[in-house]
Amino acid sequence: MDDFGGIVRTSPLRVARPSCARDVADAVQQAEADGLAVAARGCGHSTAGESQAPGGVVIDMRGMRAVHEVGRGHVTVDAGATWREVLDATLPHGLTPPVLTDHLDLTVGGTLSAGGVGGASHVHGTQAANVLELEVVTRQGEIAVCSASRRRGLFDAVRAGMGRYGVITRATLRLVAAPERVLVCTVPCRDAGELVGLQRRVRADHVSGQAKPAEAGWRFEAKAVVYDGTRPPEGVEPSEVERLAYRDFADRMRPDVAELVRLGEWARPHPWAMVLLPAARAAELIGEVLAGTTAGDLGLSGVVLVKALRIGRVPMLRSPADPVLFGMLRTASPGCRTAAEMTAANRRLHERAAAAGGTPYPAS
């Protein structure tokens, strides 16, 4: 068994495929009695073996993906549901989760366990900060319901807790009004400093940024997205403006993923590293890292991601104040650095980030 990262490959002793929280509790209790490690697995999109349990028990959560209720400001779903399935249920009501992951085919339980970052996190915080209530199976096999006002300690422990304190089995998520259309503005930036500065000051509903290999080093690009807007945000001079239906924008990665699957890149090892940097040090460190990085160090379909964001109240997600997410999303493509070499580069990135006051994302 492996995961999206393709770096760690192990075999569990057994795989449980529950259909309800009671099944999860039984699997956890049996594993506890047998002295075995437990890992919950959604779509297996982890990159360092987090969804694996060598010699232990993997709980495959995809059998629990029902949407139970869509209310005026909330939706209750099983933890094995993907954000695509959540959006399919809420959009007919004109509602959406305030923060969506860039790739919709990730499970609710998986991203809440990591924190969950999206382009709207600079406004709304992480996905974990937008949870109203959780049903959790604790490490002792108890089925518990928790929220900000009910068993707060458990609620705080499992959000961004990477499964250490329990398995999320159901979540009630906050919803907001969904826009009908969005205005996507592409803004070239001179360097990392301008990119980070633009993301921190721009008044937009969704912001993101990338660095892309160029003939003379790297070029930087921001995306500033306005919901139901007719003009770019004030102070922004885009090189390109595109109008999209909200659903098409939310699912913008789907054609790219299909192409990567066709090319075989989606199946290659993905030694990814993401860190949260203090904004005051982010541009400097990003510039230094990229100055020593070539296209071959990144891979043919690798991505350099930069997002200024807010965390919200998620105690388990350690972060500097005013964080900037910096991601080196590498792919071990043919003719590029090996997965082992990329993994070593990621370790160096984590060390440099820690020295600058940063933290890993997800939490190690």
TrEMBL record:
Transmembrane region positions? none
Arranged from A to Z, the UniProt key words for this protein are: FAD, Flavoprotein, Oxidoreductase
Listed cofactors: FAD
The UniProt entry, under InterPro entries, shows: Cytok_DH_C_sf, Cytokinin_DH_FAD/cytokin-bd, FAD-bd_PCMH, FAD-bd_PCMH-like_sf, FAD-bd_PCMH_sub1, FAD-bd_PCMH_sub2, FAD-linked_Oxase-like_C, FAD-linked_Oxidoreductases_BP
Q: Which PROSITE patterns match?
A: FAD_PCMH, OX2_COVAL_FAD
Q: Which residues form the FAD-binding PCMH-type domain?
A: 8-178
Instruction: Write out the similarity annotation.
Output: Belongs to the oxygen-dependent FAD-linked oxidoreductase family.
Q: What is this protein called?
A: FAD-binding PCMH-type domain-containing protein
Which source organism? Actinomadura miaoliensis
**What lineage, starting at the top, does this entry show?**
Bacteria, Bacillati, Actinomycetota, Actinomycetes, Streptosporangiales
